[in-house]
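[Discussion] Sanity-checking designs against the backbone

I'm trying to build intuition for which residues belong where. Below is a structure token string of 162 positions. I'd appreciate it if someone posts a full sequence so I can compare it with mine line by line.
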């Protein structure tokens, strides 16, 4: 496999897993479960690019031009970075014969990023502690990232099959 093929596989792996997570979040939204507002993610990224990394409330921060698109791009780039992390831990051979547990474990472990970095930076506190329902929010994040892990496995299976 060439380096370009390896990069393409990691991008497909991360994007595929992120699509699975997005389909899950669309289902949750359809049944009335609150989901992530990617405009706020884009707003946070936009402010971070200008040197401001923390906010008391990202919803009250000044909007950033193109924040919705920026949020979605950041979401997919993050998925690809997490896929790269899986390849670093498991090795490229894992893509030829993917197994479920490493993908699920990595998905679940990645919940540390929103709980310990993104939510505090956006003003929601560590593990959503400044929100009205921190326990529910943490559980939703954990489930969403577990679904991302399932998506890593499914995307890897498709890549191996192709």
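Best answer:
Here's mine. Compare freely.
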């Amino acid at each position: 496999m060439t380096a370009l093929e390896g990069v393409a596989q990691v991008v497909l792996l991360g994007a595929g897993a992120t699509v699975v997570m997005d389909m899950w979040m669309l289902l949750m939204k359809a049944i009335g479960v609150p989901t992530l507002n990617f405009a706020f993610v884009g707003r946070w990224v936009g402010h971070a690019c200008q040197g401001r990394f923390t906010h008391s409330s990202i919803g009250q921060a000044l909007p950033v031009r193109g924040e919705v698109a920026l949020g979605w791009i950041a979401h997919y780039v993050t998925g690809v970075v997490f896929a790269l992390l899986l390849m670093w831990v498991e090795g490229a051979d894992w893509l030829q014969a993917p197994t479920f547990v490493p993908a699920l474990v990595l998905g679940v472990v990645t919940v540390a990023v929103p709980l310990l970095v993104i939510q505090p930076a956006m003003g929601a506190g560590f593990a959503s502690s400044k929100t009205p329902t921190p326990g529910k929010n943490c559980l939703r994040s954990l489930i969403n990232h577990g679904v991302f892990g399932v998506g890593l496995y499914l995307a890897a299976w498709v890549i191996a099959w192709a």
